[in-house]
Here is the input.
Amino acid sequence: MNLRSCISTIAIAACAAVGFTASANAWSLEEAAKPYAGTVVDVVFLKRPGYEAAEAMIPEFEKKTGIKINIIKHPYENALGEQVRDFVAGGDLDIALIDLVWIGNFAENGWVEPVSKFTSNPALKDPDLDMDDFFPLVLNAFGGWNGTIYGLPFDNYSGLMFYNKCMLKDAGFDGPPATWAELKDKYGPALTKDGKYAFALQSKRNETQSADSFARMLWPFGGSFLDKNFKSNLLSKESQTGLQFRQDLMKYMPKGIVAYDHSETVNALAQGDVAMITEWSAFYSTLKDPKTSKIGDCLAIAPEPKGPAGRKPALGGFSLAVATQADDNEKAASWLFIQWITSKAKAKEYVERGGVSARKSVYKDADIVKKYDFVPALVESWQEGVPEFRPRFAEWPEITEIVQEWGSKIMLGEVSVKDGAKELGDRMEAVLKKAGYYDGKKPLAK
Here is the structure.
């Protein structure tokens, strides 16, 4: 940052001294933070419920530690580019916000520190950190790369089915569809009438098209972006079946669905215009809020439907990681904040304020289970999700633009499913070839 902490670099020695004291006395955040009081930490946040929850909690952290958290807000579409520019320029960011598909980019470029740098220091590690309390799928997908953990899960998502149980009951259904086939063949015709639609699949031409629309229809049908040799798998029978299913399902979705982002999709359910959506768990608070949703007690939640390959729900979310470009004081202060905001001790408050924690223990809390009816579906989804729901290698930011373009063209009928998948696959392979995946310069397994 431009105004660096006035704490001198001899804080490393002070840190060691605190470590000695901590070994003899109970560890506390207040004691751990004393050498870094006055440090300002810059972090990127998005304009989403999980970040608003954290923002409301931050004054407590600042009061306890004397560390100032400076939030820089970006829309999702700008967050990667802004951070990359900052890191390339050796800028001011102290904490990286990492989408699970950005982790390869951040790790391979050396922009973030391994968590072990801080957990190996008794002065900085909370004895109750308990890394095993994170859902393994979430921890490894959001913060892990090639066997090393770089960030702790924050603002965590699983794809869930949100539905209007009153609309389903009026159409003769006792519950949501168990399979994608049922959704299309039974629920679709019964619920699409009188200006209402059975389903909305957010499909706008950005990361929403790639993750929430295109990828969502690959995995449950046994498809995938790539095969084991990193060649396109989009022309496989399974991938083609899933992509064609998406086309067939569109007759039961609102017109212009290819322009729907998360806000339009969530609002369509909230206003009673559609009966079902598959959306991220983070939107639960929006759909429960009477200020933003009309459906009230008609809202219900279930896991995403199963396909021929089983239940393969969408997986998304972020981790927070300490930036290597920060100075020593900022790194320590950043870690203390990351450790605190993702801790077991703060997980319940985070959930109650509208966030979605990745801590297993919080979903065993009787109050949380009783109050939040999304919990059973969320826990089930994080047992069955696909870590590579979107390929997590460093080239994904370039490849996702190809998926967005050709995935949208397929949905709009500008190209056939087969021809669009072939063009997309050819372009995807060209990116990977240039990156060295086919000549031994890069490993195939991540």
